[in-house]
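Chapter summary example.
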Amino acid sequence: MITKTSLPYRSDILSRLFLAAVVLAALGFRPATAFEYNDEGKTLVNKRLKGSYGFAAQGYFGAEFDAATKLTTGAIAIRVGVFRFDGDGHCSIHSMANKAGLKAAVTQNTTECSYEVYLDGTGKVDAVLGGKSFQTFFVLVNGGKEFMFTRREGTANSADQGGATLVFAIAKKQ
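The structure predicted for these 174 residues follows.
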């Protein structure tokens, strides 16, 4: 006589599979987000930078390096302001700058501003501020609550030359 025996753990396995399916359904099935890439093939993670960041920066206005004397000339300059990032590659900057010799500070807003954040936490901002194009290079620190940055105004376009060089700058999430 042949006797049919049930597998002792069959109902336990089916119960666990059913429970796992219910949990996944409750959490929602979402496809994995595909990475975005810039023109240089670098992976973008722009969502790591979102919100407003207050900043303070110091450097030189009209900075020129003299290779013979190994000195940088130009007026000492400061800039304070706010970066605003949307998490999708668009930004704005509102700032006030002052340099030695000025009687009053100059307030400026960007007319164009975009940014990229890379997997390693570095990134760049391309913007037009005060009629000059510039790139800001930064690194996220403190879990994305801050970033340190440096900037040189001016591009290969001769109309953009003669801006400021920020030697030290830091921004903190507001």
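To summarize the output: The two ends are 79 Å apart (CA to CA).
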